[in-house]
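Protocol step 4 of 5: obtain the predicted structure for the target chain.
Materials: sequence only (see below). No template structures provided, no constraints applied. The aim of this step is simply to have a reference model before the mutagenesis design in step 5. Sequence pasted as it appears in the construct record:
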Amino acid sequence: MGRGHAECQGKHYRLAHAELNALLATATSFYDYPHDNGVIYSTFEPCEMCLGALVMSDVVNHDVFALADRWINPSVMLEMPHVRRHIHNYLGGVLEE
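Step 4 output (structure tokens):
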């Protein structure tokens, strides 16, 4: 289990997104324990970079987020066979109100 929050402004580093920080916070445990059913919960829909990182981590199979990002269109990525093998559930709008 790990936590992360966006630190782009505080660190002056544009890659310090919440999802990446959460993955980095749990990086050491990825190799020590089975990880075939990981879930990430986030406030906003992950950007293309973060979705790619979730796929490449080979840990997260389920992505649950509260608010869809109107600038993000993950449909192209989610149709890719490699992404579909890793991301089994992509659920947005949870607690949107």
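Step 4 remarks: Residues 66 and 95 are 6 Å apart (CA to CA). Residues 48-57 form the longest helix (10 residues).
Proceed to step 5.
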